[in-house]
UniProtKB/TrEMBL annotation:
Ranges where the NADPH-dependent FMN reductase-like domain occurs: 4-150
Source organism of the structure: Jonesia denitrificans (strain ATCC 14870 / DSM 20603 / BCRC 15368 / CIP 55.134 / JCM 11481 / NBRC 15587 / NCTC 10816 / Prevot 55134)
One matching Pfam family: FMN_red
Keywords: Flavoprotein, FMN, Oxidoreductase
Composition bias, Low complexity: 199-210
A GO molecular-function annotation: oxidoreductase activity
Protein name from the UniProt record: NADPH-dependent FMN reductase
Keyword Coiled coil belongs to the record: no
Superkingdom to which the source organism belongs: Bacteria
Keyword set includes Flavoprotein: yes
Length: 224
């Protein structure tokens, strides 16, 4: 049995960053099977302790517990919003609290959210170098979700495929065999399969929440 840790650096509630973290954890359960431990942690819950650590060098409370999870996890998924072409300060502060030895040779999947597709380069320029310094084993495929990835059916299908592909790479690095995929019924036409997949991955409730806060899900906001 393997232990997977998914760390979400979203700043707001609700947030598209947490939504992406949940999609990735769901993909882990789908691809890896139910025999593994998958834990999702919100960095908001340990934000004050992270600042205390930066100032004092001592971890306590929720941050101390998260550090223990990082050390024992077989693989880690890190999800952050992108602001001004860089990862959010909360995620960077969390990474600053880690001993680089904890991530040495540990499989890591990087994911991010942003207002538009042009922000996805920040994963390679702002996120990946930190993990390279720590000598983590990063998956080749990263996952980026822009605002319009949550409402357009075709974009939703593409995002779903990217999450499964990246999770498959993470399992390979962690030495975890994926479960066999369940084939669709023989009498189900391909177009129907595609629609069912889109329906299962779409999130109208989250879009409604964004609209309630005066945010257009299809607009170029940073996603939080």
């Amino acid at each position: 049995m393997a232990e997977f840790l998914v760390v979400s650096g979203g700043l707001s509630v609700p947030s598209s960053t947490r939504l992406l973290a949940d999609r990735l954890s769901d993909a882990l359960r789908e691809v890896a099977g139910a025999d593994h431990v998958i834990e999702v942690h919100e960095l908001r819950d340990s934000a004050h302790q992270a600042v205390d650590f930066v100032l004092t060098g001592f971890a306590h409370g929720a941050l101390e517990e998260l550090h223990a999870r990082v050390r024992t996890a077989d693989a880690i998924v890190l999800v952050t919003p992108i602001y001004s072409q860089a990862i959010a300060g909360l995620m960077k502060t969390f990474l600053d609290t880690l001993d680089p030895q904890w991530l040495r040779n540990k499989p890591v999947l990087l994911a991010a959210t942003g207002g538009t597709e042009r922000h996805q380069l920040a994963i390679d320029y702002s996120f990946a170098p930190i993990l390279a310094y720590m000598k983590a084993r990063r998956t080749v495929t990263s996952v980026f979700a822009a605002s319009n990835d949550w409402g357009n059916p075709q974009a939703v299908r593409s995002l779903g495929q990217r999450t499964r592909d990246s999770v498959g790479e993470l399992l390979n690095l962690a030495g975890v065999a994926p479960v066999a995929a369940t084939p669709p019924p023989a009498d189900t036409p391909p177009a129907s399969v595609g629609r069912q997949e889109a329906d299962s991955l779409s999130s109208p409730d989250f879009s409604d929440l964004l609209r309630a806060q005066g945010i257009d899900p299809g607009a170029g906001n940073h996603g939080g």
